[in-house]
């Protein structure tokens, strides 16, 4: 993928560079540059920070001690997502105004690389140290405070692509996710490496990598929701094994709550009770797993070599029209739009002779 590499500039100079490559944008995303970089000196006004950050986070207000804002912002687009590095001195970033009409919101995943931060949203306040990860929603007011020089890595993804209901998402927003589990440690490490490699990411792998990032984020959020769940019975320990059973048989079109209950020697009613603790139903979980598999398949390097209906059948859907409706309902875009975004981006960045 084409990108912008860091350049050396004098401390009292400002360098802003944008690369516009005409890449196809994800539906409902505001148009912006494929990649941008701003290296800002200590003598620049906060307006430069606002303009640089607008590419990544939308409209934000910037405040710093003595009006000094040294630092750098580097942003790259990978398919449907954006990744960014932001580093600077002590400052506070605040988004108070509501998003523009028609903006359904972005989810920002932030990994603290160095320094410290305090993130506030919806009456919650969380302190972050290096290695910690946090999520916040750009559709609501948010404040990011950095008391010392800092560096953060960001993944910015349309909220609809995560596939969680609002009440599920609100439970894990603005909570510190420590790198103390296999999944959280992998997610933080993958995000840091993805952001660092974005400038030189080969075009054929950019969209699949973005899809992998979304899948890993979905796995992390599912784990966090499980950690926040208040068990009502020791038998809830059975739920992970049941979910694993569903994952192993997800391509079976005959997989239903009834067959899952029978295979696990429980009643359908009790199966629903187990999933209710997660705010889900067995049918919703089965369908979401199938949709996630299809989404990954349609973002692969060879997505155009198979029909969308063929991909749907591979993962247990018996009706192409039902699959298309379910995909759009969960992710906000059609399967064709999801696949074609990557295909058109690749064709634009790697034109034939």
From TrEMBL:
<dbReference type="InterPro" id="IPR009057">
    <property type="entry name" value="Homeodomain-like_sf"/>
</dbReference>
<keyword id="KW-0804">Transcription</keyword>
<keyword id="KW-0805">Transcription regulation</keyword>
<dbReference type="InterPro" id="IPR018060">
    <property type="entry name" value="HTH_AraC"/>
</dbReference>
<feature type="domain" description="HTH araC/xylS-type">
    <location>
        <begin position="240"/>
        <end position="341"/>
    </location>
</feature>
<dbReference type="InterPro" id="IPR020449">
    <property type="entry name" value="Tscrpt_reg_AraC-type_HTH"/>
</dbReference>
<dbReference type="Pfam" id="PF14525">
    <property type="entry name" value="AraC_binding_2"/>
</dbReference>
<dbReference type="InterPro" id="IPR035418">
    <property type="entry name" value="AraC-bd_2"/>
</dbReference>
<protein>
    <submittedName>
        <fullName>AraC-type DNA-binding protein</fullName>
    </submittedName>
</protein>
<dbReference type="InterPro" id="IPR050204">
    <property type="entry name" value="AraC_XylS_family_regulators"/>
</dbReference>
<keyword id="KW-0238">DNA-binding</keyword>
<dbReference type="GO" id="GO:0043565">
    <property type="term" value="F:sequence-specific DNA binding"/>
</dbReference>
<dbReference type="GO" id="GO:0003700">
    <property type="term" value="F:DNA-binding transcription factor activity"/>
</dbReference>
<dbReference type="Pfam" id="PF12833">
    <property type="entry name" value="HTH_18"/>
</dbReference>
